[in-house]
UniProtKB/TrEMBL annotation, chains A, B:
Matches recorded under NCBIfam families: PRK05692.1 (NF004283)
The keyword Metal-binding belongs to this UniProt entry's keyword annotation: yes
Name of the protein: Hydroxymethylglutaryl-CoA lyase
Pfam families hit by this protein: HMGL-like
Residues in the signal sequence: none
SUPFAM superfamilies per UniProt: Aldolase (SSF51569)
Length: 309, 309
């Protein structure tokens, strides 16, 4: 007999948490971008359609990064052309630079995200830019996107640790994040790209911003800390959480490690706490089980493992 | 490059948490009892010695349950006879009944644990007793153990959900737990045997007891919730946490599911929060990697997966 069949988890709210959380589903972009397998566009389209059917309202669909860097998402145009958009669901896309914005605009998107670094080393490696210079690169992109009426989200990566530099000063993260917000990003997603954060850090970094309404958190589960960190962020008033169906997306810096926080593990937490989110756990588990078959590897999500059997 | 090599996790304390946590390591008992493989006694002895060498100070060593029910621990006498006890380390054993206590006393143990149920169905299935009657069974065992100068811990299982009954009323858990404390147990370990709990439940159940000093928490990671629940308990002043090196111990009610909270995942959290615990993470990871080889299956611990490579 499974826990779901006997009505578990029990719903018991806790003090000081938001009533509703928006799940920003990144499986199709951040997840598939970091999977070894290149997934056919038809499978991606079915994946997105199933996720929408499961009640998720924000599905980051793909990235307009150069195919040379991320061959897994080289089919971005084809994907967006084939996408059957559902009422009430948004399909943001990642845009790394001006050329990416051209492609996104040509594809008719209405919501984009840019991807900045909180550290020098990752800015250099990922953007071939300094920490400071990257903003000069993003500014005209954001300006033009806003002028075209797009919604722009800012990702900030390596907010809680950097694989080359180690600890990252909170002030540095906050200063970088503020520049993205000042540029006109409607939301800043604080990324723990290598999954090392713990809740004290979350409190320090999130607490450095004036308003938790403008923040989202993006935790990777490499060291099993993603959900605890999410809980810490929720306690501080953050109400948008990034996650990936089935925990898709290995960590590119550690071959064997797990990737994004699994949407199903997050949903179990939210269900137990009686926090509204709009998604159906069983439909998500079915979707991730199906996707795991497509990828030929089991889902690292604890919930999917427990309920799929 | 690994996170540990660049000094991560960063140590950032959070408000309202204990300064020090006692890790009650259950890998050799609760872990191995639920693994399919029967591990040779020499391997168990090396496992316990390595865990003590890694700085853990409480190692639940084995169980005096009838070998017919748990053949994995049929070597309890042999194990205790071969154990090289280290200074400052305690080696409690599980004692299910009067016969088990006889065996434990004959083996010269100084610390035992009894295992009660918070629900009718599990009391019936595990002890062939009613929820109420089980205390009558435990009373003479505890009385005699205390008279013999032993330390007695009380486990209470199914505190946050039962696979047959579903949700378990907090009042029922608190009432059952109080009976174990009133009997003379120095500590009560609240068990989420099937891993379904979420933090609101933890607050409600833990908050039902007068003093968090007398409590320990015992979470299973079946649905990925164990560490978030631990964090919720730490915030309420609980400072003893049960965990299992490498996350040993599948859940007996779900073949594919993961078992106990992994000690390594807990230690990452505590390290990041600057909470003292005395254990060395790298030594634990080496131990669990070695143990996984003995068992012929990879550790489900996120930290072990990420750092073992």
């Amino acid at each position: 007999m499974g826990a779901r069949e006997v009505g578990l988890p029990d719903r018991v709210p806790a003090e000081g948490l938001p009533e509703r959380v928006t799940i920003w589903e990144v499986g199709a972009r951040d997840g598939l971008q970091n999977e070894k397998a290149v997934v056919p566009v038809e499978v991606k389209l079915e994946f997105l359609d199933r996720l929408a059917g499961a009640g998720l309202s924000v599905l980051e669909a793909t990235s307009f990064v150069h195919p040379k860097w991320v061959p897994q998402l080289a089919d971005a145009e084809q994907l967006l052309a084939g996408l059957e958009r559902r009422e009430g669901v948004s399909y943001p896309v990642l845009v790394p630079n001006a050329r990416g914005l051209d492609r996104a605009l040509a594809a008719g998107v209405s919501s984009i995200a840019i991807f900045a670094s909180a550290t020098e080393t990752f800015a250099k490696r990922n953007l071939n830019s300094s920490l400071d210079e990257q903003f000069g690169m993003f500014e005209p992109v954001v300006e033009r996107a806003l002028a075209e009426g797009l919604q722009v989200r800012g990702y900030l990566s390596m907010c809680f640790g950097d694989p080359w530099e180690g600890p990252v000063p909170a002030e540095q993260v906050v200063a970088a994040g503020r520049r993205l917000l000042d540029m006109g990003c409607f939301q800043l997603s604080l990324g723990d790209t290598i999954g090392v954060a713990t809740p004290g850090q979350v409190e320090r970094v999130v607490g450095g911003f004036a308003s938790p309404d403008q923040l989202a958190v993006h935790f990777h589960d490499t060291y099993g800390q993603a959900l605890s960190n999410t809980l810490a962020a929720l306690r501080l008033g953050v109400s948008t959480v990034d996650s990936s169906a089935g925990g898709l997306g290995g960590c590119p810096y550690a071959e064997s490690a797990t990737g994004n926080l699994a949407t199903e593990d997050l949903v179990w937490l939210l269900d137990g706490l009686g926090i509204e989110h709009g998604a159906d756990l069983d439909a998500l588990v079915r979707t991730s089980t199906w996707m795991a078959e497509q990828l030929g590897r089991p889902s690292p999500s604890r919930v999917v493992k427990a309920l799929a059997g």
